[in-house]
Design goal:
The protein is mainly alpha-helical. It has 2 helices and 2 strands, in the order E-E-H-H. A two-stranded antiparallel ribbon has the order 1-2. It starts with 8 loop residues before the first strand and ends in a 7-residue tail after the last helix.
């Protein structure tokens, strides 16, 4: 008869930050709910990132061939305003 020794690994959930005891050394989440929420959060962040990059690419030709530095600065401010609006729409707070 073989006895299995189960180890317990103290872990911190990568989504909610709670501590939990895992029986698997590679566990990252305290529950399947947190695992699913992290997946959805990452998917949402990637969508927002692509949306922001599309606006930057839209302005890129204007930045490359702008006549003056002042015009370039104004275009960069416009890009920042658009990206900030996207973040506000998605309830994302930027920590600087």
């Amino acid at each position: 008869m073989t006895t299995h020794i189960t180890r317990e690994y103290p872990r911190t959930c990568h989504f909610c930050g709670d501590t939990f005891i895992s029986k698997h050394p590679a566990a990252r989440f305290c529950s399947s709910r947190c695992r699913q929420r992290m997946f959805r959060w990452r998917k949402r962040i990637l969508f927002i990132q692509r949306e922001c990059l599309s606006y930057i690419h839209e302005f890129e030709p204007y930045l490359r061939f702008s006549d003056s530095r002042a015009h370039t600065v104004e275009l960069m401010k416009d890009i920042k305003l658009v990206i900030d609006a996207i973040w506000r729409e998605n309830n994302i707070k930027v920590v600087r």
